[in-house]
Amino acid sequence: MGSAIADFSDTERSVVESAVKERYGHDVPVEVADTELRMYPEDRELTTCPCLFWKQRDCSFVIAKVGEGRFRSMFFYRVHQMFGTGREEYDDIGDCVLVLLRVQADHEKEQAGVTSGKTAKDIS
Q1: Residue 52 β-bridge partners
Q2: What whole-number distance in Å separates Cα of residue 96 and Cα of residue 74?
Q3: Rounded to a whole number, what is the distance in angstroms from the first to the last CA of the chain?
Q4: DSSP-based three-state secondary structure for 23
Q5: Helix-strand-coil split of the chain, %, nearest 5
Q6: Which residue ranges of the chain lie beneath pLDDT 70?
Q7: How far apart are CA 6 and CA 46, in angstroms?
Q8: How far apart are CA 99 and CA 103, in angstroms?
Q9: Do strands 82-83 and 70-76 pair parallel, antiparallel, or not at all (unpaired)?
Q10: Is the pTM of this model over 0.70?
Q11: Which residues contact 45 (CB under 8 A, 6 or more apart)?
Q12: How far apart are CA 96 and CA 111, in angstroms?
């Protein structure tokens, strides 16, 4: 059964693809898929939503479109290691992808033991 939520527009996809390319310095395949989400915490039923999905550095990223101009995002390493951005929903795809990439980059640095004031020499 299809979703009542419109697919990502070419512009929305382009914004995400450009941000991902800028973050990693090369083209990263961004796939179109569907995901099932609870639109509200009290919902028992799942709603099928279009999403954009990509993998980089052993991390998977998902941006789901939950309505016109409404987006949710997350990144994960394994099923039990899922992370959000601290914000439930975005009304701008550019903000959504940039915050997602920034939060994941901060998480990656933290996992590597990088803290403020440390240099490459300190962590090598």
Answers
A1: 32, 63
A2: 10
A3: 51
A4: helix
A5: 30, 30, 40
A6: 1-3, 114-124
A7: 16
A8: 6
A9: antiparallel
A10: yes
A11: 38
A12: 23
